[in-house]
Amino acid sequence: MALRGRISQKHSQELAQLQGFQWTKLLGLFGILLLIIYIGTVLYLSLGSFSPTSSRYQSLAHQGASSHLPEVRQFFSVQRDYQQWFILRGTVGERAFFNGASEMLMESLLSSSVRGSSSSFSLSLHFAFLRTLFFLLASGRMCVFALILSLFYGMQRWKVYRSNDVLGQTGNGRVYYTGVLARLENLTAEGIPDKQVTGLACPPCVSEVEAKASNLAKLLEEYGALNGTTLALTSVILALEEYPAYLAQPQGQEQAKLREVFVGASVPEATEHILRVALSLHRSYHQGGGEQTVASAIHVSADKKLSMQDYAGELHKALHQVLTPHLREELAKLSSAEVATALLALQSGKVLALTQAGGQWMWISSFPQLSARAVLHSVPAFVEEHDYHQRETIRRSLIYASRSSVFGPARFAVDLVSAARALRQWVELSMTCPHELARIADEIELFELMNEVHGVWKDAFSKEVSQFTERYPDRVHATQTNLLLVPVSALLEIGKKSIATDRFDRLKSLIRSVSTHQQEREAQMKEEEETLASGIPEYERVYPPFTHQELEELGQRHGIEKQDLSNWAVLRVLLHNYGWLARRVGDYTVPISTLIFAILHGAGSQAEKNNLGLVGQAGMIALRGARLRERFGKEWHSHFSHATYANMAETKEQYEKLMLGIEDKVEDDK
After folding, report:
1. Model confidence over 245-299: pLDDT tens digits?
2. What's the pLDDT score for residue 41?
3. Average pLDDT, integer, range 432-458
4. What is the residue-wise DSSP string for 540-562?
């Protein structure tokens, strides 16, 4: 109840409506019923047809006019004046109804006067009924007109609205509002509500005057990115002078590694340098620059500590590196204000993600990108200056800035537009600590490059897979265990046709770099005796290229050229990352090389079978049937030769045993 005095009248009324059942509500319903009856009566009397005045009424009027009591004669005189008004200004129905009701009053008054003089109370009561009757009938049409105007005014007053209050931006038109008057309005062309309620992050900030006078605001103005949203975020950032620009995670020696390569900086200082390199790069893309596919090498090492200005130069290289040519074009379509808003929000979000305890700074949130979104949503100008699609692009670039979480890989939205993916790349890179810049830049570039290459490869596979039976007769089989076994040469041929040479070479280079970084991290974790849970999860693992020894062994086993095997080492990373490769065939786990000997039981093709009816094939890849279901539907098996089930071998010795029907049995532990 203490809150009610501080909220608006509209909100107070809505709050009262939600306080449960009250007897006054029942009385209100009864009053509404009477009002409806009154309106119906007025309309009926105005439009209906009625019989003329009865003879009984004329007789009573004559008796009242000749009464010996002055009070009675006065009553009948007033009644006659009222009747005369209805004759001149009322309708036939109103006059008939008034005469009928007056007839009862006249008869009651005359009967009481016959027994003696009427009491003053009785006479006053009759006068009151007569005057009330006249007022209700005489003002009926005007009252109905006033009620219609009141109804119209009330609809306008109680329509869906939005206003500011102590709880932020409120109103009964919000998407998640629980009031009975809620409805969706201001929809986009796709039917999506173009609304967003201002949040309650309430971060500290400097004054608007101080923010406008800052170097950060001048930088925004230089690149045409200064508006109410970026100015509000700037005021928050300027209040974080004591906050560190970068803070490594507490695990292992991360903090020490950060101090080895970076001298340190505050959030406002770092933001100014990051924003300058980002906006300058964005302007060059907008002007048609940035065609270079591969950026310059990044040099961050413990040999020399970098100042924030020096680090900004390395960050500039990384920002250019992580965008493919397509993403650079898409990022150029965004305004400088959108780019600045995302990057400023990330920096200002540190006010919610960091805290100081015991003289040291520490993370209190594992999701700094979500803290950034919370601060951004607390800026009222963000809703006013950006439409739904712009807000969605900025918001998604923050939400998906991390490619994984404590729950596993981040599942990106299917409709995540390229502009949001491009801005997401920059946001993740801005989150990266300096000592991890080179590693994360390679991972981010590989992540997006694989996304684009996979789209091309998938389209090519969908076109070529229907011709597998003709091109590779008796070599492609679908099993009842939801597998498709194909020769590796078929997949390599699709990759050769669909993936450009320069992209394939870049993939190979990035895979080698990222896998090397992962091996170094695993070795370091073992030295630091980290728990198994802190290792690299399977969904982030990048298989390293084949070594010379592996190329020799695999080439001899399956009769495949070393160059083809080297190319397959790249393609398998792509297919593994997008869930094409099966993990098990029969009772065995598929090796990391993914190349297997396939032993088919009950093959329906014309492939050569041994005396046990088994078909053995080398250099095979097992694909998951779920991917084929996307192309052919539930009956995808019918498009290929079938096999009852398949088994696999990794070495020639295992293969020869399985072809003879000899299977290794794993003894149960006793």
Report:
1. 999 987 768 888 999 999 999 999 999 999 999 999 999 999 987 655 455 688 8
2. 77
3. 94
4. G--PPPPPHHHHHHHHHHHT--H
Q: Is residue 589 helix, strand or coil?
A: strand
H-assigned helices in 5-119:
9-17, 23-47, 55-65, 70-89, 92-114
User: How many Cβ atoms from other residues are within 10 Å of residue 477's Cβ?
Assistant: 26
Q: Which amino acid is at 195?
A: K
What is the rounded distance in angstroms from the CA atom of residue 456 to the CA atom of residue 451? 9
The Cα 297–Cα 312 span in angstroms is: 14
The answer for residues whose C-beta is within 8 angstroms of residue 151's C-beta and 6 or more apart is: none
Per-residue pLDDT reduced to its tens digit, 561-607: 999 999 999 999 999 999 999 999 988 999 999 999 999 999 988 88
Of 481, 470, 490, give the one whose Cα is nearest residue 637: 481
Are 510 and 445 spatial neighbours (Cβ–Cβ below 8 Å)?
A: yes
- For the cut 60, the answer to whether the pLDDT of residue 354 exceeds it is yes
| Residue position matching structure tokens 């810049």 | 437
For residues 619 and 487, is the Cβ–Cβ distance under 8 A?
Answer: yes
Average pLDDT of the segment spanning 219-226: 96
Asked if 341 contacts 394 with a C-beta cutoff of 8 angstroms, the reply is yes
∠ Cα 234 238 242 (to 5°): 145
DSSP string, 128-187: HHHHHHHHHHHTHHHHHHHHHHHHHHHHHHTS---EEETTEEE-TTSTT--STT----SB
Q: What is the band of 174 on the pLDDT scale with cuts at 50, 70, 90?
A: very low
Are residues 498 and 457 in contact, defined by beta-carbon separation less than 8 angstroms?
yes
Q: CA–CA separation, 409 vs 425, rounded Å?
A: 16
SS3 call for 478: strand
The tokens describing 195, both together, are: 């609304």
The tokens of 442 are what? 């390679």
Task: Pull the structure tokens for residue 519.
Answer: 């091996």
The answer to whether residue 530 scores a pLDDT higher than 60 is: no
Q: Say whether pTM exceeds 0.85.
A: no
Task: Give me the residues paired with residue 614 across strands.
Answer: 601
| 534-537 LR contacts (CB < 8 Å, sep 24+) | 534/251, 537/404, 537/408
According to the 3-state scheme, what is the secondary structure of 610-667?
A: CCCCEEEEEEEEEEEHHHHHHHHCCCHHHHCEEECEEEEECCHHHHHHHHCCCCCCCC
Alpha carbon distance 564, 381 (integer Å)? 56
Q: Measured in Å, how far apart are the chain's first and last C-alpha atoms?
A: 70
Residue pair 478/484 in contact (Cβ under 8 Å)? The answer is yes
DSSP type of residue 305: P
For residue 375, is it left (φ>0), alpha (ψ between -120 and 50) or beta?
alpha
Residues 141 and 613: their CA atoms lie apart, in Å, by 99
Model pLDDT for residues 399-408, shown as the tens digit of each residue: 999 888 777 7
- Token code pair at residue 264: 């340190």
